[in-house]
Each structure stands twice: as C-alpha cells, then as structure tokens.
Amino acid sequence: MKTWVLLRGLMRESRHWGDFIPKLQAAYPNDRLITIDWPGNGLLHQEKSLIHIRDMVGHIRQTLINQQCSGPFYVLAISLGAMAAVAWANAFPKEIRACILINTSLRPFNPFYHRLRLQSLPALIRLLFSDTAGKEIIILELTSTSQPQAALAQWIQFQKQFPVSRANILRQLAAAMLYRANKPDVPLLLLSGAKDQLVSPACSQTLAEKWQVPCWVHTQAGHDLPLDDGDWVLNKLALYLTSLH
C-alpha cells in the first residue's frame, strides 16, 4: 500500500481536485490518499496564509503527524504545491518515495516572466478586486483549456463557503515568488500543459533539462492538468510508477 500526499496551488483547496481524486483511488484502491489544505484556503480559510514555503513544509509534516501517517510518501503536487513538495524533498528526502510535479516553476531556474506569464497579470489584478463569481471565472479562464462549466459552478460554491481573502492571496503569491529551490535527491517526474496561460511550459522543460528528469507534456492542456485531462495524468503516473520498481 502506498500513501499519496496531494498538494494544490494558489487559492485552491482539496476539493479543487474534483473527480481526479475518485479516479486516482479507483486506479489504486489499496492506497491511502491524503489531501492537504493550506492555511488561508479551504477548511483553513480563516487562518493567515504562510509567506514562506519552508513553513508550508512544516504544515504538511504536522498535518501528516496529526493524521498518523508515515512515509515514505508519493507526492502529487501542482504549481505552488509543487514548490512546497520540492522544499519538503530537499529538507527531508527520506520521507518521500517520489514527487510528481505538475506545471511548477522555480527560482533560480526559471525567469520571473516565465514563472508568471506577463499576459496573465491584468487578469490577476482584476481577480483581486472581483466578486466571488468573477474570481472563479478568471481562475478557470487562466488555468483550463476545457473550462467545464460544472467545475465553475462548484468552484463558486467553494469560494462562497470558504472565501480566500485578498491578503491571503497576496501572501501566497509572495511565498511562490520568494522561494528559491535546489534539486532534491528523490525520484522526480514533471508533467506540463503546453497551453498553460499562467506559468510558461518552458519552466518544466528547463527543470527537466537541468535536473535530468523526465518531463511529459500534454499538448492541449492548461495549468490545471488534472481538470483538463485527469485520465492522461493517471496514465503517466502508471508509466512512471512502473519505472520506479
């Protein structure tokens, strides 16, 4: 039995994995899946978001202790969550069996204008001053090529139930921009959406080249790869897990 730790990104909570979670559980019925909300998001929306990635690592580890989980863990993480996964792997490599990183970007390997695509800046600024529905419409437009309206309706309800404050959005953005990474000594796989409007796909490609790790690219997907094509992600996971044994 494997234990998976799933980490989402900026402004997202565990429920934003959507139907990918039941699909992953169906693919690995004997495995345990742990989803973690960041302070400021989801169940923890009333808490102050962490401004340093190292503190997010502490949050992950304490959450796992509280849930009586022991590693080594298989970590599946997207965007900001993938930064925290890298920091965790750097600090505590023995706790991690493998990291699968989706559409991440890391300083100093990727320039700031790739880590946050300049054309997305006007939308992000609008997001900070939009109402609940407006925020989620912008996020869906930035992160998905398929833009399923059923997901949008769910996201609006999530945000109404557990709103993420403007201050916490800015704190999470700061954490992402400030973090500086090193290559961790754990098995790594990079997954990337070629039509990502938020983070340049060049970020994953650069990391793959510099770190000498595999990178698989979905030619049609955006930033939220599990939303745009969860089955493709599962297929790549299965191929990668086979290569680990």
Describe the overall structure.
The protein has about 240 residues and is of the alpha/beta class. The protein has one domain (about 5-245): Rossmann fold (3-Layer(aba) Sandwich). Helices cover about 45% and strands about 15% of the residues. The protein is built from ten helices and six strands, in the order βαβαβαβαααααβαβα. The chain has helices at about 20-25, 55-65, 80-90, 110-115, 120-130, 130-145, 150-160, 165-180, 200-210, 225-245; strands at about 5, 30-35, 75-80, 95-100, 190-195, 215-220. It has a six-stranded parallel sheet with strand order 2-1-3-4-5-6, sandwiched between helices. Helix 3 (about 80-90) links the parallel strand 3 (about 75-80) and strand 4 (about 95-100). The protein is globular. The two termini are about 15 Å apart. The mean pLDDT is about 95.
